[in-house]
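INFO  loader      accepted 1 record
INFO  loader      residues=182
INFO  predictor   begin
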Amino acid sequence: MHLLAISGSLRARSSNRELLRAVTLLAPPDTVVDFFEGLNSLPHFNPDDDGIGAVLPPSVVSLRQAIAQCDALLISSPEYAHGVPGSLKNALDWLVSGAEMVDKPTALLTASTHSRFVHAALAETLRTMSTLITPATTRVVPLDGRRLQAEAIAADPELSTVLRETLSALGALVAGAPRRES
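INFO  predictor   done
INFO  writer      dumping C-alpha cells
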C-alpha cells in the first residue's frame, strides 16, 4: 500500500506531523508512506486558474500527481480558530475540480481531543469531494499538547493501537476501492 501523508500544519515539528511520522514507524513492511511537503508552495486557489485550458501552477500539478499515484491519503490537521488551517483548505480547493480525490481511500487524524470543529469540518469536505472515508478511518488521537515525538507516540500502547486500527481500516478501504486506470 502506498500512502500519501499530508499534515495540515506547516510547523516542522507539529503534533500532527509527529503523528504522521509515527504512522510510518507502525506501518506494515509492505506499506510505503510518502509525505507531501508542498502545502506552503501552493498559490491561493482561484477558479479562473483551474478552468478549461488553464495551465496549472507546477506545485498544483505536483499535488495532483502525488494524490493520483498513491493508493490512499492520510491527513492529520490541527484546528485553527475553530476551523481548517488555510493552507490545507487551499490544497483541497485545488483538488475539487480534478478526479484525483474521487473514490480515494482516506484517513483523517486529529491530534487533540480539544479540536472540536476541524475534525467534522474536514470529514465533511472530504465526503463532499467523494473520497472513501469511514468512521474507522476518521480518528481523534489524544495527544492533547503532550508534544510527543513520533517514536514516543509509536511506543505508547494506547496511541499506537489507534494508529494501527486506522491503518488497518484504511487498508480494508484500499482493498475494496474501485480500481482506476492511471
